[in-house]
Fold this sequence. Notes:
With 462 residues, the chain is an all-alpha fold. The protein has a domain at 71-309. Helix content is 74%, strand content 0%. The chain contains 25 helices and no strands. The longest helix has 25 residues, at 184-208. The chain is globular and about 65 Å long. Mean pLDDT is 87; it is low at 449-462.
Amino acid sequence: MVNTPVLSAKFSLIVTVxxxxxxxxxxxKLEMVPHIPVLFNLAxxxxxxxxxxxxxxxxxxxxxxxVSMVVSAIILFILIGIxxxxxxxxxxxxxxxxxxxxxxxxxxxxxxxxxxxxxVGVLLGSSLxxxxxxxxxxxxxxxxxxxxxxxxxxxIVSGAFFGDKMSPLSDTTSLASSTVGVDxxxxxxxxxxxxxxxxxxxxxxFLLIPINSSEVSGNNSIxxxxxxxxxxxxxxxxxxxxxxVLLICTVTKQSGIISLFLxxxxxxxxxxxxxxxxxxxxxxMDGYVSTTGQEVVDSLLTRGGIxxxxxxxxxxxxxxxxxxxxxxxxxxxxxxxWVMRSVRKRSSVVRSSLATSxxxxxxxGEQYLSILLTGQAYQQSFEEKSIDKRVLARVMEDGxxxxxxxxxxxxxxxxxxxxxxxxxxxxxxxxxxxxxxxxISFFLADYRFLRSRSHTSSTQTM
Length: 462
């Protein structure tokens, strides 16, 4: 990795526009899988690096360093694949699916999805775990009810990322507060300025989406799925054990990797005790295969396994390599420096940090990097303009945490699309919370909110 930027600011901007154009044309017009434009852009940056007299070792170090940043995410994705498969096999997800089918009113389905995933997201502190558990359940229900999958996934994403943003257990929330040196709970309180209005806007919009309740209630698939699940005679005390273990791990502040490992291990041990140990090998690799004989039910419950995550994992590795190479060529530093040189007003500094966090999601595709790099780049500017550091932490999440799932080639976008089976661009228009957070944060940059002085800050919050 090189410390001095290799590319000029102007050339970095040209390269960035070219890369984004490649993504747009390949994904929107040509409808390619995201791997192809990522590989093309990776090759483009590699050639530019060679042209700028960087040797192959330096370029490979950049790629390797980028990939090393997502190793924990890759392990998490593998465990999510195992967790979904084991939860299916032991009956956790089928049981929850049956309960939600029984209690959730079809007329208020979308807003119910938003509210339930929000609560689960806050409890778990992980948007991706929420998507992999409750998200799978709600997509299955939407399929049974014949409701729009893009709208359903939009509600899942809105709720899951509300929870991720507002939970004290969340990695991104902790990262944003620690990066700029503010108290975790002060940071969460500060985020309410944009998060609470965005959440209420989302509730209203999902309530306004019309659902033909008579058509839904007459759907024979609901009766079919409910009857099959009831015939499984699932014991709640047994099938909910993996979920209880996951919640205990979350409350005791275990990492996501440890939590998912122990939860899936609980499910696997339960299967062994039920004399179903012979299915574990295939279950872990290829996922759970439902054999109820009912096509609708089997299509809903056949999920999970490590192999189901390989599309996501392979793409995340490529995107991480692209991010590492972008950093090693100095593209990110040059663009952030160029933006900072052009701002003068306090509101412009806030908006620029928001735009930087937003833009980094599109350039590097990684949630943590969009937060970390923005925080490091703008701390001095916020201090010089006497802007409270809590504002910086807040806009890093408004433009970083909740925007990553809206980018087709980002880590979260890839994961959600693959896990729930809906293309990123299809659910983006219905991810109301994520979009509202960004817009509210942008417009609030012109307003100042006075806060009491504390030992961490004696400046004014905007």
